[in-house]
């Protein structure tokens, strides 16, 4: 939620960063297929043989589109092949976590962390936009300095978990 005090302006919504085919300053959407292509055999939390398989298989679906919402329970979120569930690493990548991000806890707790997360890449774009807008409103900084400070702050925030302990990356 974004709010403003009485008498203050609400910030504008960020400009689009992606579109269906890219162009006009945007990149093409990250599809399920392009995201899953980054997951490698042997990656942490990626063991396709260990996830639930479906017998009979579920309907296949086109992975060259945007993904469905990732939830803590995983309802209706299964691999495009229709043969199995997603692995935890696949779900994490689809939710926007970096491939090297390390989770702590049981598989159930990790799935809950992934499903409850606000996608980190979305947070980055939103916070960078809000930070720049607020600084411009106060006439503090202009231009490239704003982007540099936002990126530095994001890196610091990303290194700390919600509980103030360094995350394992």
TrEMBL record:
InterPro entries: C5-Methyltransferase (IPR050390), C5_MeTfrase (IPR001525), C5_meth_CS (IPR031303), SAM-dependent_MTases_sf (IPR029063)
Methyltransferase is among the record's keywords: yes
GO terms assigned for molecular function: DNA (cytosine-5-)-methyltransferase activity; DNA binding
Gene3D superfamilies reported in the protein's UniProt record: DNA Methylase, subunit A, domain 2
EC number(s) stated in the UniProt entry for this protein: 2.1.1.37
Pfam families: DNA_methylase
Enzyme class per UniProt: transferase
Protein name (record): DNA (cytosine-5-)-methyltransferase
Organism: Akanthomyces muscarius
PROSITE patterns on file: C5_MTASE_2 (PS00095)
GO biological process: methylation; negative regulation of gene expression via chromosomal CpG island methylation
The entry's keywords: Methyltransferase, S-adenosyl-L-methionine, Transferase
Taxonomic lineage: Eukaryota, Fungi, Dikarya, Ascomycota, Pezizomycotina
Region (Disordered): 1-29
PANTHER family (UniProt xref): CYTOSINE-SPECIFIC METHYLTRANSFERASE, DNA (CYTOSINE-5)-METHYLTRANSFERASE 1
Keyword Transferase appears in the UniProt entry: yes
A single Gene Ontology CC term: nucleus
């Amino acid at each position: 939620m974004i709010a403003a005090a009485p008498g203050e302006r609400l910030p504008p919504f960020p400009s689009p960063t992606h579109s269906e085919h890219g162009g006009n300053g945007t990149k093409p959407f990250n599809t399920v297929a392009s995201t899953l292509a980054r997951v490698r055999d042997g990656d942490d939390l990626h063991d396709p043989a260990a996830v639930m398989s479906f017998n009979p298989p579920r309907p296949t679906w086109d992975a060259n589109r945007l993904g469905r919402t990732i939830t803590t329970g995983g309802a209706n979120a299964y691999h495009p092949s229709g043969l199995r569930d997603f692995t935890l690493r696949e779900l994490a990548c689809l939710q926007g976590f970096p491939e090297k991000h390390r989770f702590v806890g049981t598989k159930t707790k990790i799935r809950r962390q992934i499903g409850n997360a606000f996608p980190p890449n979305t947070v980055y774009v939103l916070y960078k936009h809000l930070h720049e807008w607020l600084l411009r409103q106060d006439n503090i900084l202009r231009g490239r300095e704003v982007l540099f400070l936002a990126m530095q702050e994001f890196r610091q925030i990303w290194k700390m978990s919600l509980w103030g302990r360094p995350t394992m990356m």
